[in-house]
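Hey,

Quick one before I head out. I ran the complex with flavin-adenine dinucleotide overnight. Inputs first:
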Amino acid sequence: MIDFEFTVVGGGVIGLSIAKSLSSENKKVLLLEKNNTFGQENSSRNSGVIHAGLYYIKNSLKEKLCIQGRHYLYKYIKDRGIKYNKCGKIIVASSLDEIQKLKFIKKNAERLAIELVELDKKNLKEMEPDLNGSAGLFSRETGIVDVHQLMANFLIDVENNGGTIVFNTEFSEGFINQNSIDFIVNNQKNDVFKTKVLINCSGLNSYRVAKSIKNFQFKIPKIRFVKGNYMKLEGDSPFSRLIYPIPQKDGLGIHSTICLSGETHFGPDTEQLKSVNFDVSRDLENKFKKSISKYWSKIKDRNLVPDYSGIRTKIVGNDFCIQNNKINQNISLINLFGIESPGLTSSIAIGEFVKNLVIENK
Ligand SMILES: Cc1cc2nc3c(=O)[nH]c(=O)nc-3n(C[C@H](O)[C@H](O)[C@H](O)COP(=O)(O)OP(=O)(O)OC[C@H]3O[C@@H](n4cnc5c(N)ncnc54)[C@H](O)[C@@H]3O)c2cc1C
């Protein structure tokens, strides 16, 4: 006897989107979340930016799912009346070397048919009078979204489709059989549940959940945690668009994001971590000011206060890893590893991607 056809581990934006896609096919879906509500981890600890899809490795899953996901996401949030602002983004260069890098970004955007407008110093000043820079690129497709409202809508879809979502319920361990994947939650060894397909999208815990699944050999990639701290600007916002420096190793650089309430946040930086910790230190102010001053000199007269942080899960190859371990015709274990940025933008596309993997499996 099977209890659920599909069991999704993790109630972040990815798990909710996958559960929404699967439940829309009239399948019996269960979603387990260890916290007392949805989206308490990385899904509410990011820049909330809908990315155009400019920077990723050619033909990677990140590139494909970000561009597809952006189209799906704008349509979904318009249909649902979810708050968003397609404010656009300026990528700003301050040195000759950086201007050269803008050219690569522009060329890549042409390959992908993503519109980017070239800006000279005068254009930059007209668009954002406080911005310092020699040249830039403007992406109209970039915007921000209310991530909490988005996740709440995914959750409503799952429930309206007849899916089950349970909070305060931690996946503890699993065992793969020929006719089911058996698992227990909250270490309750006497209550064993059976599912045909188990989907592990537990974010920072994905490798740990994968390790707890026994009786089948599969590859678990090495994960590197890279923290991204944010600081909030006190007072008025200097910009009406998102301002990004040239991308750096492990991140897109400390950028300026406006949120839907009008506040300005700067971040994320990159900090290598040994273990999960979301604290943001006040000591970061100098480091942030030094980095921001390259494109906004007036930061020296303003105050930054510690805000929040998120943690990137980096794997070798720097792409999303969506692993389909097919045990037989009916039974599968799907693991999602390295779902860092642009995971939010890609969320609906990832949901559809996983649905096509497992429905095709049947
Ligand atoms: C600093 C930063 C900035 C970012 N900015 C952007 C951006 O601007 N735009 C963009 O597109 N993307 C961005 N991202 C990426 C985006 O935030 C992530 O890709 C996305 O939130 C990942 O969602 P998730 O559901 O996989 O993970 P999470 O949101 O972490 O959800 C995983 C869930 O699994 C649960 N869980 C864990 N273990 C268990 C268990 N054993 N049993 C049950 N539940 C469990 C957790 O409690 C959690 O709720 C950013 C990421 C970071 C770190």
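The helical segments are 13-23, 61-80, 96-111, 121-127, 147-160, 206-211, 285-292, 343-361.

Talk tomorrow,
K.
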